Amino acid sequence: MLNKKIMSVAAAGAAIATLGACTTDAVTGERRISTEAAVGTGAGAVVGYLLGDLIGGKNDRTEKIIGAGIGAVAGGAVGAYMDKQEQELRRQTQGTGVDVVREGDNLLLRMPSGITFDHNSYTVKPQFQSTLNEVAQTLASYESTYIDIMGHTDSTGSDSYNQQLSERRAQAVANYLAQRGVQPQRMATMGYGESQLLYRPDDTEAKREANRRVEIKVVPVTQQDAQRYGY
User: Fold this and answer.
1) What does pTM read for this prediction?
2) pLDDT tens per residue across span 45-62
3) Cβ pair 214, 150 in contact under 8 A
4) d(C-alpha 213, C-alpha 15), whole Å
5) Is residue 7 part of a domain?
6) Where is the OmpA-like domain (predicted)?
7) What is the total count of domains within the chain?
8) Can you say whether residue 218 is alpha, beta or left, with left for phi > 0 and alpha for psi between -120 and 50 degrees?
9) Residue 90 maps to which CATH number?
């Protein structure tokens, strides 16, 4: 059922117009997905993708998180909690090529593979490690969040190779974050191969570079989540 949901979201979100739904604040540089811009462009699928269910759902992960002594955020404090985290992540990634997108109380860090991995490699580049170290520090400090790490490729190469590469890259980032203090209970990984292209067709190198990426989705663990699953 999860795979069918992933594929349906991928098909809906593949249009190039999805990028046009992101707006940038001229003063802060903050990027947000505009729901209004999404209407009639097909970009609404990106909103659904960011706001949608976590990998594997919340139930098991909520149990592990609460069981590890990590507290949930009270409803009225969620916005401020994520605001502070967003500000730190923007500061840490400024000028690195990492894109930070905010939708509601959720965050998405989009990291092009050109700055994170060498071609056909799933070893984090040494020159990107300092940035990822800072990201890990923030994610570890704001521990009341679920974290999804998602790998994507372009459409060149075989489906099976792309799937494996995307899985390995997502896992490599998760392992790196875990080694730097981010609790494994909070994280889940998924490789999407070429099923969620930002640009389709990716018939130029620039489009292929944009499609090759790792994304980190950060979602608050709320008291409502804990109560819903009986914790």
Assistant:
1) 0.80
2) 444 455 557 999 998 899
3) yes
4) 17
5) no
6) 104-222
7) 1
8) beta
9) 3.30.1330.60
